[in-house]
Amino acid sequence: MSIPIKKDISAFGKLTYLVIDDFENFRISMRHMLRSCGAQNIELVANARPAIQYCTYNHVDVVLCDYNLGKGKNGQHILEELRHKKLLKRTSLFLMVTSETSRQMVLGAREYQPDAYLTKPINRTMLEKRLGSLIEQRNALLTINRAIDQENYPEAISLCIAAVKRLPRYKTWLMKTLGELYFLLGDLSHALKVYDDVLSQRELTWARVGRSKILLANHRYNEAVESLNELVKAHPDHMEAYDLLALGLERQNRSMRAQKVLEQATQHSPNALLRQKHLAELAESNQDMTTAAKAWRSTVILGTYSIHDNPDHYISLSHALCELSEGDKDTVGEELANEALSILDTMLKRFPDNQALELRSQIIKCRIYSVMGQTNKANSILVSVDGRFPDTGCIPLETGLDYAKTLFQLGHESEAKKLLDDLATSLNDDAYAVKKIENLLDEPVSFRLKINARSLNREGISAFESGDLNAAEDIFTKALEIIPDHPALNLNQVQVLIKKHASGNSSEKLIERCKQHLDRLSDLPERHRQYRRYVALKRKLQALTL
To answer: Per-residue confidence at 3, pLDDT binned at 50, 70, 90?
Structure first.
């Protein structure tokens, strides 16, 4: 007969604990169970506010947090905020306690990497076994995690390598951490070797993901995308793989496919705010405003209790709704426009006493009312906005772009162009800003008209390349009826007409039309990406007239 060995409970007694649950009876019950395991320093709180405040001023070794905490932030929001503010060290443990086991909850919470889940009801034996095992691992790896918390990555790497043979029980954790540390230091060759060594012995998802990160960092996009495609098929619940796959596809300039990947990911796990935001931005760049609006809605809703809440999300949603409502004269268009107005009001309530935000809101509202056909109201707001608008040098880029869009919408084209030209001059050294300004100057129309014009432009280029100059001329003429001052379209038409002139269809009329198209671009700034082409075609035309 063997003599039972009494479990050493001193490990529990050396740590500090925070229990977060909205039911007082459960908090008291957890404190009782923890004390019976040897714990002594235990803090109890009911919801997120005191929990985050406590972690701000106190070191906590173990957090036991219920997922559902009533109205306000849930356990996922608390974990997200603690990670974001770096209030939870790697040496600390976070256990999500829940009676809910829905797939959406688990996938959403998993993205912020809790150390474990505890499913209610909880008894002492379960708590001691699960938490005891985690504390044992914590203590065994404490020096490594302390080095990482101190951002002493070389030291952490040395400790990991030394521990691989000494602590074979934790080899998987050590190899995973080693790969991540090499990646953080930018030592991609050693990181890749770690993942390849692991994968040569066993196919592990985290190693495949780590290897794909290295491939992306090394610009080996085709290999990364192929690997991640296989990973997503084999493990459809591994959300990080979707994010990396979308990133790889974007690097390959396959933005539509990247959007589809993120749509698939948000169907699996809809509660990740940053992924919804990424999807919204991708859809916008693809001119898919319906998907963009849907994703921005989700971003705004998820931001209600999130540390990542931001007024820009509300602005972006109002933009998308305004774009969708333009040209839609039935009740759906009116509903979208009213939703956009409501979103802006909600934003100002959530982010009060912000004059810059209030001004930007008024600018967008002005455009929305114009889209709704309420011209008097739009003009009244425009007069108010004009009186409050700062000097060009003080205008934030996005506010300036919003104002220019509104001016275009209300027919004040010359004012809009002057504003954008002044903005481009003041932000001349910012390539990203200049590109955004040029894009609006080139296409100051609704997304539906942009799509139509771009489609015609592609058709015209195709006809030109196939030698059908008459068809190309007709197609570019239709596109220029939509956006008359578009630099690329005007230059494409000039190129077609010069080609026709050189092909035996020479006439004074063709030359005169070329001059008219070039005259439209006479104020094209030298920094514009089409400027060199404009100069080259102008010289070519001059040579034809000599």
So the answer is: very low
